[in-house]
């Protein structure tokens, strides 16, 4: 592989980053080809990980019965979540579509095995959450690779962790990191849906960057 990117390659990378969306409502039913699924999983598997721990597993879910069970838990968790908002905010929340569990042909649970490489992990001793963050890096790699493959991905975290573990037979010591809905889509929205629907806007980058010290600009 060449060491530097051509201009076109660089542009392609930024295109994937800026046009990636969280997809909940635009899934098409056609199956994800095995070779494409394999490529995006391979992209996830090439994520950085603390101490090269590679603490992830990937549970590919296509069984409608399993999806239905997880969707039922979503419905319950989503009601609980809606109740935490008041008035206009609650009715806006209730109108948002926040999952594509049954619509997406593939669901994927990314998990973290915190004991994968023994009790002492290079780089994790003083910051123990680093293995969890490594799995999130894998999710992001997959999300960008999926975008380049023309596949939409939606992250669903409105779930009870124990219910998810029960539905997928995940052992106690394994932590579910992400539950993702994956499939081809009718289109990608140009901006996040939470922005279009008036929930929240993108912050100004300049307000978030400090120099040398917290809040110093
Ligand atoms: C860890 C985590 C967890 C969730 C999300 C994201 C992440 C990173 N997002 C998607 C989130 O709403 C979305 O990323 C932002 O609104 C920004 O939109 P784009 O991803 O740029 O389209 C998300 N979306 C949703 O509809 N239901 C959900 O449960 C979640 N959960």
Automatic annotation (TrEMBL):
Enzyme kind, highest EC tier: oxidoreductase
E.C. code: 1.13.11.79
Gene Ontology biological process terms in this record: cobalamin biosynthetic process
Reactions catalysed, as given in the entry: FMNH2 + O2 = dialurate + 5,6-dimethylbenzimidazole + D-erythrose 4-phosphate + H(+)
Subunit structure: Homooctamer.
NCBIfam families recorded: BluB
Domain Nitroreductase: 18-183
InterPro entries: BluB, Nitroreductase, Nitroreductase-like, Nitroreductase/BluB
Domain of life: Bacteria
SUPFAM superfamilies: FMN-dependent nitroreductase-like
GO MF entries: 5,6-dimethylbenzimidazole synthase activity; nucleotide binding; oxidoreductase activity, acting on paired donors, with incorporation or reduction of molecular oxygen
Keyword terms, alphabetized: Cobalamin biosynthesis, Flavoprotein, FMN, NAD, NADP, Nucleotide-binding, Oxidoreductase
Naturally occurring in which organism (per UniProt): Azospirillum doebereinerae
Membership in a protein family: Belongs to the BluB family.
Designated name of the protein: 5,6-dimethylbenzimidazole synthase
